[in-house]
């Protein structure tokens, strides 16, 4: 399997191990398979499949330069006792008519753990396969969850340093606590004065700064990424869609070959792109429901074909979706444009220079066949948490509530009766303030953060997950806050170069 840049010549393709280490392509594009193995999925393997087995299939299909024994060892290490459910990503029916794919049972209580418990092992093996002897500097912008999961996954991994940039005052109290309290001598987190797009834009600039690359090389270092722009983060996410489909068949909810819908709370477009790639492999998906919060740039794009980031940025109660530039959308555009590299490059240049672009009718039709999109505002998010808890005694976090609210409205308006899996991306305890108000309908919440978790636990009852318990056992490091223009200097100080 070879990977090419969405903006580059097929002749410059590299293998997956090299792509994992590089993270971003040198031309600023994202790596995609040169020849996607469409239709290679045997559906008969899915009923009863567990998450590790689904992961083995995905990795051996799309990252086949890794030896099977290395993949097996990586998967075994990634999906062990650090999960509070042996199923890793259990599927809950929640007595609501839809299914909820719970991706929050890992050590940082969010879906990013599924890939980021695996990526460090893949990266170590990738260095061995490529003969790369440089230490890896994981450089990542986060809207909240990627930073925490990256730091946990790479904590004290030999030969790595981690620099995470998050929007200052733009993440939840628990997300901030997790980043500041994560143990590891190789970790640093920086608040950026601005929003996520400011952080992500500057991370991309630093990645492509040739002088910085030279400084790193002189000290035996190189950049890589841990967000879903890296195929080593993106591809492992495909496994849980295969697992969910197999669970529906095993339970008799669908027959083998029946279509399903997946509803995904969407920010940087990586999670829903993983579902789209499963559809390309041959998974019978009717519609991919792209659910946004009030930063609804993707909703407008799918409705009109016009991507326009020139709008007010809103800090919401679903902070991991507070994004106006969805980087992984570039991979979908590459397919929709028939792999027309010049077209992709033109659209990305327009987005950078004038803040918007318009796709053509053929590309729009490609998207319309596969996706529907809508958004939920702040009140609708709270109302959906309340509705689901009152009807099914099932608590969801604000991000999951965005997808749940959008799905509920879509099903009423479209009369689409296709069985639907809503991707539950984070634990309700990670956003205890919003969830508490929504499930209790009371205004007696005390302090945010850890005290709010205690109050929410009293309201919900049951056993507190071990990853939530761990939040009370760690102390924060002092917060470091920088201006966007100071990000590169902060990295240089951290690395002492």
Description of the structure:
The structure is a single chain. The protein has 497 residues and is of the alpha/beta class. It has a domain at 91-110 and 234-473: Rossmann fold, CATH 3.40.50. It contains 22 helices and 16 strands. The strands form four sheets. The protein has a six-stranded mixed beta sheet with strand order 4-5-15-10-11-14, with helices on both faces. Strands 9-6-7-8-16 form a five-stranded parallel beta sheet, sandwiched between helices. Strand 7 (160-167), helix 7 (173-181) and strand 8 form a beta-alpha-beta unit. Helix 2 (51-62) packs antiparallel against helix 3, helix 2 (51-62) packs across helix 11 and helix 17 (378-392) crosses helix 18. The longest helix is centred in the C-terminal third of the chain and has 17 residues, at 398-414. The protein is globular, with a radius of gyration of 21 Å. The mean pLDDT is 96.
Summarize the structure.
The chain has helices at 16-22, 51-62, 68-78, 112-116, 119-130, 145-154, 173-181, 196-207, 210-218, 231-234, 239-250, 270-281, 297-304, 329-336, 341-354, 361-368, 378-392, 398-414, 432-440, 450-460, 466-470, 487-495; strands at residues 2-5, 14-15, 31-33, 91-92, 99-102, 135-141, 160-167, 187-192, 221-224, 260-265, 285-292, 306-308, 356-358, 371-375, 420-424, 480-482. It is an alpha/beta fold.
Topology of helices and strands:
Layout: E1 2-5, E2 14-15, H1 16-22, E3 31-33, H2 51-62, H3 68-78, E4 91-92, E5 99-102, H4 112-116, H5 119-130, E6 135-141, H6 145-154, E7 160-167, H7 173-181, E8 187-192, H8 196-207, H9 210-218, E9 221-224, H10 231-234, H11 239-250, E10 260-265, H12 270-281, E11 285-292, H13 297-304, E12 306-308, H14 329-336, H15 341-354, E13 356-358, H16 361-368, E14 371-375, H17 378-392, H18 398-414, E15 420-424, H19 432-440, H20 450-460, H21 466-470, E16 480-482, H22 487-495
Parallel strand pairs: 5-15, 6-7, 6-9, 7-8, 8-16, 10-11, 10-15, 11-14
Antiparallel strand pairs: 1-2, 1-3, 4-5, 12-13
